[in-house]
Design goal:
By secondary structure, the chain is mainly α. The chain has helices at residues 17-41, 47-76, 84-89, 92-122, 143-177, and strands spanning 128-129, 133-134. Helix content is 67%, strand content 2%.
């Protein structure tokens, strides 16, 4: 059953305040983590690189928790339907691309940090959230397994980045070219 509060009125056409906050917080976290991952991967071994790897790992766990929260929120709070004019203007392939991109992003929101955690565990480096909360190993330490998992973290992260770029490009297309004012649906209401 869908829970609704006065701030969660899907008939208004806008997303709820919680959905908006989760959307933008997760988006900012993903951009930051991806940028950090690119930056630290090219650094020589140093105390700064080790510090960044640790930050990247606990931030990835925070993204995992945030993603679970966002998924639960999405399942329990019906999003607003697309306005009728947009539904009629969009070709069927765009509806399908929208749905597939959304599902793929939700899957990767979970898979990318889990694969990163598995790689870190397999490589024998524990994940310590905020430097104080050690997490159990996701998989046993195994250097061969770590070498198998390592490229998958990069592949899934790059795949998620591509989907996020597609998502942003589609939103901007609908906002500016099609004049659908979609972006306002994901801003806090006044």
């Amino acid at each position: 059953m869908m829970n609704e509060t006065p701030l969660d009125n899907p008939s208004s056409g806008n997303y709820s305040l919680m959905a908006v906050l989760l959307h933008w917080l997760l988006g900012a976290a993903l951009v930051g983590l991806f940028a950090m991952g690119l930056y630290m991967a090219e650094m020589p071994i140093s105390p700064l690189r080790l510090k960044l790897f640790n930050w990247h790992k606990w931030a990835g766990i925070c993204v995992l928790v945030l993603s679970v929260w966002r998924l639960v929120w999405r399942i329990t709070h019906r999003p607003p339907p697309l306005p009728e004019a947009i539904q009629q203007d969009m070709p069927r392939w765009q509806h399908l691309a929208h749905a597939l991109t959304q599902y793929a992003m939700y899957v990767l929101f979970l898979v990318v940090p889990l694969v990163g955690w598995a790689y870190s565990s397999a490589a024998g480096f524990p994940v310590v959230v905020f430097g104080v909360l050690p997490l159990p190993d996701f998989v046993p330490a195994d250097k061969v397994l770590a070498e198998i998992i390592k490229p998958w973290h990069e592949i899934t992260a790059v795949s998620l980045a591509v989907l996020v770029i597609m998502h942003v490009a589609a939103a901007l297309k609908h906002q500016w070219l099609d004049k659908h004012a979609l972006i306002q649906r994901m801003w806090p209401r006044r």
